[in-house]
Each structure stands twice: as structure tokens, then as C-alpha cells.
């Protein structure tokens, strides 16, 4: 019992190593390796080490501050402002009520600050400064929706974050490992709006039918319980089963009745978007990002329940698409939600996208491994030259490397993708860790041989105060980099801080116990 109590720090280190081993190699952890089976460990790699696509772009939009809503609701303001801007609708305008300032944002391309100012004046809303860019709330919502899109699409390891430059410019940074550039741009480049319109006849003119479109009878926010994309049983096309919230379901049912879409026996849709002559009885139009992607009629059974007013009691139906790929895209958009603003991938101030091939990523992995080995050998050589005692130097190297191993286990446990900045953090951890261990060894051995436990503990405590102060300084210095959205620097700072914490709480105390066991007879 006395031995266990005296050497609990070493036992704690062993437990930490065992937990890290479990996180690295257990088949029950690590989503990427468990599902894809492409790695001997549960480690995930960023695009720099695995290949993939990076997109860095601002958001399209202009914003007016200190807008006077004149008692109107946010939705009314959005409609009024959109009516004053050519090519805009209410979905392109975001009105927000804030504690300090009301804002209005327009998130379509080719709208200038002068255009928004003129639209607000025409709509009768006073306002303050009108500037380029969107609000922080819109950027945060965009990050959330893009991350949801990436997750729903099954792009393992994909990350989305805000990046702020030194000149206070705001960008959205998207990184998706092991994916082609075109696929990622297609996924994140569109707003992902989905709605249902009703196209129906309203009468005749000179013997020809006249048609009208009732827009947005169902919008993205109205759908719930979104199913997975499925192939049609007829072998033609695909569909996404959805349910509708109670209030919009009742309104949709009324719209279907009013437009005559719920006819006995259903309706047959022959919609022609190109302006050709239509003979259709009416159609439900599936509109994605403002474009009609499919038009379909209504089955007899569904039409009967609509006419009887029973459909709204259990509101569900199928969104018909032409193929499974379209159905999958629609399901992703419905689950993730629509982007409040698009990424600006064109124009002078646009963002950039880049692609790293998997072979180049593998080359970076190999180079990183070689760099790590060189760092370890260099540190080991200096330590052995400095002390010339294996019982001092060897535990120092092993203990220092255990810090990196524990950090790798932590990264595997939380699924943090490793990239070059994290590797740089590991190398920094090796350097700072061994430096602290050298301080311990020098302080313990500086005044001659250690004759007793009491002498050792006194010298070790002095060394540990120095180490603690250095660790606190490192944590304070790195914290801004870890908190602020500064791209690659964030990963470096996070793992440097974690390495210092692991060192102070686990490895440095454990090395002290090991050194005491090797240098003193009073154990």
C-alpha cells in the first residue's frame, strides 16, 4: 500500500497511456477508421495530411445598421425592402431586432450599399450606416448550416469555421478531407432553399388556358420528419418522404383545394417550364435555389384526403424527384436548412478554393513522421550528452514521448483531425516537455548526490515551481490563438496548451517519482 501511495503519479501516467491506447486502437472509437477501415488507428487527418478541398470565402451581402422598423414586424420589413430591390424576394432579406440596433441585410449578389439605402428610404424606414458584409449572427448561422450540410452528406472530418483577418475582414473557412473540389463547391456554394409552388389554371384566354403560380405554399421551415432518399417502386425517379407541421399543413391543404389541384382521381402534370403550351390540370413544383427541379401531379388517394379535409390530421407526402442524386441533395438541404447567405466564390474580393491530392497528403504524412523522428533523436542526443547517465536521460525521453502519445489518444477520442499545425504543436510539446524535465534533473542533481527522499522532494518542489510558472506563461500566451478564429494557428495553440497541461499534471510529476526511485535508496 505504501508503494502504491508513494508512486501514484507513475500509476496515473500508466493509466493515461492505457486510455490513450484504447482511444487510438479500439474499434468502438474513431468514426472514420471504424466506418472506412482505411487506417490502423482511430486518428483522423485534416486535408493537409489526407488530401482534400479547402474553401475560404466571404459571405455575399450588405447590411444597414440602426434601422427604424416603425412598429413593423421583421417579416413585414423583409417583404417591404425586398419589393424595392430588383430580383430580390423576402428570402433574400434578413431583418433582425437587436437590443442595441435593428439591422437589415440583403444577401444576393450585385446589390450595393447605395441600393440597400435607396430601398430602405423607398420603404419608409430610417437607417444609419450601410456597409458591405453581413452581421455576426448571420455568419454564425452560416457556419452551423454548412457544418450540418457536411455532416448530412457524410463527409467525414469536414470542418467549418469563421476566420478573421488582421484587417477585420471575415471569411468562412471550409475544409473537407479526401473530397474532390467540385463536389465540395457544389455542396456549399448554393444556399439550399427548398420550397413547393402550385402551378394551376385560372381560366381561358382566346380558347387557351391561363396559368398562375402560387409560390412558397410550403417552405423549408415547414417540413419535419424528413426521410431518406428512396428510389420509386415504379423504377422511374426517386422521392423523399416528409411530414409537415400542423399550421402550414392546414394552409397547404386549403391552397390545394382553392387551386383545384385536389380533383377526383388526382391530377396529371404536364408542366413545361420553357414556355411551351401547357395542357396540365395543375402541378406541384419542387423549387430548389429558385429553379424548378421537378413537377408532379397528385395521386387520387392524396387528392381525396385533401378534398375531405383529412390530410392535415396526418400531414405527410412524398417530394418526387427525377433521380436518387436529386433526392439525396434535397434531403440534405431540408435537414441542414437554407444558408442565410451564400459564399462569395466570384468577383474581385471573392474567396478561393484549393485542392490537395491524396498522394500529396501522403507525402506530407511521411515528411511529418520523419520530422518528428529527427526531433526526438536530436533531443535524445542532447540529453545523453548533457548527463551521460542512462538512468536520468532514458526516462526523460520516454516520459517526454508519452506526452505526445497521450495527446494523440486525446485527438483520436474526440475525432480532432490532425494537420500540419497540430504536428507543429506536437514538436513544440516535445521541446518544452524535455526542457522542463531537464530543469527537474538539473535542480535535483545540482547540489550533489541525493541521499534521501526528503532531500529529493525539497529539490523537486523548487524545480516544479519554475515549471509551473513557465507553463502558466505558455498557456496565457497561447490562449488568444486557441480562442480566436485564426485558421491553422488555432490547432497549434490548442495542442501546445494541452501538452503543457498534460505535462504539469501527469508526466512531470511521474518523471519526478521515476527519478526518485532511480537516484535514492530511500524509496
UniProtKB/TrEMBL annotation:
- Offer one example of a GO biological process linked to this entry: protein targeting
Give the bilayer topology: Multi-pass membrane protein
Domain Protein export membrane protein SecD/SecF C-terminal per the UniProt entry, residue ranges: 353-506
Q: Where are the transmembrane segments?
A: 366-385, 392-416, 422-442, 463-483, 489-507
Q: Does the keyword Transmembrane helix apply?
A: yes
Alphabetized InterPro entries for the sequence:
SecD/SecF_arch_bac, SecD_arc, SecD_SecF_C
* Gene3D superfamilies associated with the record: Multidrug efflux transporter AcrB transmembrane domain
Q: Which UniProt keywords apply?
A: Cell membrane, Membrane, Protein transport, Translocation, Transmembrane, Transmembrane helix, Transport
Q: How does it assemble?
A: Part of the protein translocation apparatus. Forms a complex with SecF.
Query: Which NCBIfam families does the UniProt record give?
Result: PRK08343.1-1 (NF006215)
Q: What family is this?
A: Belongs to the SecD/SecF family. SecD subfamily.
Name of the featured protein = Protein-export membrane protein SecD
Q: Which taxonomic lineage does the organism of this UniProt entry have?
A: Archaea, Methanobacteriati, Methanobacteriota, Stenosarchaea group, Halobacteria
Amino acid at each position: 500500500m505504501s508503494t502504491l501511495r508513494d508512486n501514484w503519479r507513475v500509476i496515473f501516467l500508466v493509466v493515461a497511456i492505457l486510455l490513450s491506447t484504447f482511444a487510438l486502437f479500439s474499434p468502438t472509437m474513431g468514426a472514420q477508421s471504424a466506418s472506412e477501415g482505411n487506417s490502423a488507428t482511430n486518428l483522423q487527418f485534416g486535408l493537409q495530411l489526407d488530401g482534400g478541398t479547402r474553401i475560404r470565402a466571404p459571405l455575399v451581402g450588405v447590411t444597414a445598421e440602426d434601422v427604424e422598423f416603425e412598429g413593423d414586424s421583421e417579416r413585414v420589413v423583409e417583404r417591404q425592402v425586398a419589393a424595392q430591390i430588383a430580383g430580390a424576394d423576402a428570402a433574400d432579406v434578413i431583418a433582425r431586432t437587436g437590443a442595441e440596433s435593428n439591422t437589415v441585410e440583403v444577401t444576393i449578389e450585385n446589390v450595393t450599399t447605395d441600393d440597400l439605402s435607396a430601398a430602405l428610404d423607398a420603404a419608409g424606414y430610417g437607417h444609419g450606416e450601410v456597409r458591405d458584409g453581413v452581421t455576426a449572427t448571420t455568419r454564425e448561422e452560416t457556419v452551423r448550416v454548412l457544418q450540418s450540410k457536411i455532416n448530412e452528406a457524410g463527409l467525414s472530418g469536414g470542418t467549418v469555421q469563421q476566420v478573421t483577418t488582421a484587417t477585420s475582414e471575415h471569411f468562412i473557412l471550409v475544409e473537407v478531407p479526401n473530397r474532390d473540389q467540385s463536389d465540395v463547391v457544389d455542396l456549399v456554394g448554393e444556399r439550399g432553399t427548398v420550397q413547393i409552388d402550385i402551378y394551376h389554371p385560372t381560366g381561358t384566354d382566346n380558347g387557351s388556358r391561363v396559368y398562375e403560380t402560387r409560390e412558397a405554399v410550403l417552405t423549408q421551415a415547414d417540413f419535419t420528419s424528413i426521410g431518406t432518399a428512396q428510389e420509386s417502386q415504379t423504377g422511374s425517379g426517386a422521392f423523399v418522404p416528409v411530414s409537415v407541421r400542423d399550421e402550414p399543413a392546414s394552409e397547404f391543404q386549403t391552397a390545394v383545394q382553392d387551386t383545384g389541384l385536389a380533383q377526383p382521381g388526382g391530377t396529371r402534370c404536364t408542366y413545361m417550364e420553357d414556355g411551351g403550351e401547357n395542357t396540365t390540370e395543375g402541378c406541384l413544383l419542387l423549387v430548389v435555389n429558385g429553379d424548378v427541379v421537378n413537377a408532379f401531379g397528385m395521386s387520387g388517394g392524396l387528392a381525396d384526403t385533401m378534398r375531405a379535409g383529412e390530410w392535415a390530421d396526418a400531414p405527410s407526402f412524398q417530394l418526387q424527384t427525377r433521380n436518387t442524386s436529386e433526392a439525396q441533395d434535397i434531403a440534405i438541404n431540408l435537414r441542414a436548412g437554407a444558408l442565410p447567405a451564400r459564399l462569395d466564390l466570384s468577383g474581385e474580393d471573392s474567396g478561393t478554393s484549393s485542392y490537395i491530392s491524396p498522394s500529396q497528403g501522403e507525402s506530407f504524412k511521411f515528411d511529418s513522421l520523419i520530422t518528428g523522428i529527427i526531433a526526438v533523436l536530436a533531443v535524445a542526443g542532447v540529453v545523453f550528452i548533457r548527463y551521460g547517465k542512462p538512468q536520468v536521460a532514458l526516462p526523460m525521453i520516454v516520459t517526454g514521448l508519452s506526452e505526445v502519445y497521450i495527446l494523440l489518444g486525446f485527438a483520436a477520442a474526440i475525432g480532432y483531425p490532425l494537420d500540419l499545425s497540430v504536428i507543429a504543436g506536437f514538436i513544440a510539446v516535445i521541446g518544452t516537455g524535455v526542457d522542463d524535465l531537464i530543469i527537474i534533473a538539473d535542480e535535483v542533481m545540482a547540489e550533489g548526490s541525493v541521499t534521501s527522499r526528503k532531500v529529493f522532494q525539497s529539490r523537486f518542489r523548487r524545480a516544479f515551481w519554475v515549471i509551473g510558472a513557465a507553463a502558466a506563461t505558455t498557456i496565457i500566451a497561447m490562449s488568444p490563438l486557441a480562442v480566436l478564429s485564426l485558421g491553422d494557428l488555432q490547432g497549434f495553440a490548442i495542442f501546445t496548451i494541452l501538452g503543457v497541461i498534460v505535462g504539469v499534471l501527469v508526466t512531470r510529476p511521474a518523471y519526478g517519482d521515476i527519478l526518485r526511485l532511480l537516484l535514492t535508496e530511500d524509496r
